[in-house]
Design goal:
Radius of gyration of chain B: 13 Å
Number of strands of chain B: 11
Helix content of chain A: under 10%
Order of helices and strands of chain B: EEEEEEEEEEE
Largest interface: A-B, 23 and 27 residues
Largest sheet of chain B: 7 strands, mixed
Number of strands of chain A: 12
Number of helices of chain A: 0
Structural class of chain B: mainly beta
Oligomer: heterodimer
Radius of gyration of chain A: 13 Å
Number of helices of chain B: 0
Shape of chain A: globular
Structural class of chain A: mainly beta
Distance between the termini of chain A: 41 Å
Largest sheet of chain A: 6 strands, mixed
Strand content of chain B: over 45%
Mean pLDDT of chain A: 90
Low-confidence stretches of chain A: none
Low-confidence stretches of chain B: none
Shape of chain B: globular
Mean pLDDT of chain B: 94
Chain lengths: 114, 111
């Protein structure tokens, strides 16, 4: 069965410092992996996706993630945090061919301090 | 503007009173899903639809019904709501399943 584990429920950084949000997945087959962001009182927005092409995936707002099969990880990074990055982030997996189903991690709340 | 529209945004109701949360998308997407979001649990899938008249259960379907009579609409029906269905609900749609567009959410409170 597929599953996603987000290793940190809360991450706090200072503005201008790097962001690292960690995600490990479990999947029997080649998964598709996504990161979504949820700002307060808003819906979810797709940040980036990995679908078996390049292992380093670039997304919107300067975020990127690297797919590491050997470590079953898909960590989200950004070189320099901005105040507007404060939000909840979800790592998501869909099983191979199972695009009707998104399996969400529990979420990581990112706080950015001045 | 391409979007998924949910109504209402907020709803307080009493136990046992039937309600419907509407979801409509204007992107001609095949796939649609309903999720509920609870603290510490992320989002869990309630029902999904792969096309008109094709629906199936997700991970937490108990107490919910859906229908897909038209491509653009995918209402979520709670026939007899209970307090454990108090949650934040999201509808989402996708053309192929490769990246979903989410609605703004419906916060439901059942007292």
């Amino acid at each position: 069965a597929q599953s996603v584990t987000q290793l940190d429920s809360h991450v706090s950084v200072s503005e201008g410092t790097p962001v690292l949000l960690r995600c490990n997945y479990s999947s029997s087959y080649s998964p598709s992996l996504f990161w979504y962001v949820q700002h307060p009182n808003k819906g979810l927005q797709l940040l980036l996706k990995y679908t078996s092409a390049a292992t380093l995936v670039k997304g919107i707002n300067g975020f990127e993630a690297e797919f590491k099969k050997s470590e079953t990880s898909f960590h989200l990074t950004k070189p320099s945090a901005h105040m507007s990055d404060a939000a909840e982030y979800f790592c998501v997996v869909t099983p191979f061919g199972g695009y009707n189903k998104l399996i969400f991690g529990a979420g990581t709340r990112l706080a950015v301090h001045p | 503007e391409a979007q998924v529209t949910q109504n209402p945004r907020y709803l307080i109701t009493v136990t046992g009173k039937k309600l419907t949360v509407t979801c409509s998308q204007n992107m001609n997407h095949e796939y649609m899903s309903w999720y509920r979001q609870d603290p510490g649990l992320g989002l869990r899938q309630i029902y999904y639809s792969m096309n008109v008249e094709v629906t199936d259960k997700g991970d937490v379907p108990e107490g919910y019904k859906v229908s897909r009579k038209e491509k653009r609409n995918f209402p979520l029906i709670l026939e007899s709501p209970s307090p454990n269905q108090t949650s934040l609900y999201f509808c989402a749609s996708s053309p192929t399943g490769d990246g979903y567009t989410f609605g703004s959410g419906t916060r439901l409170t059942v007292v």
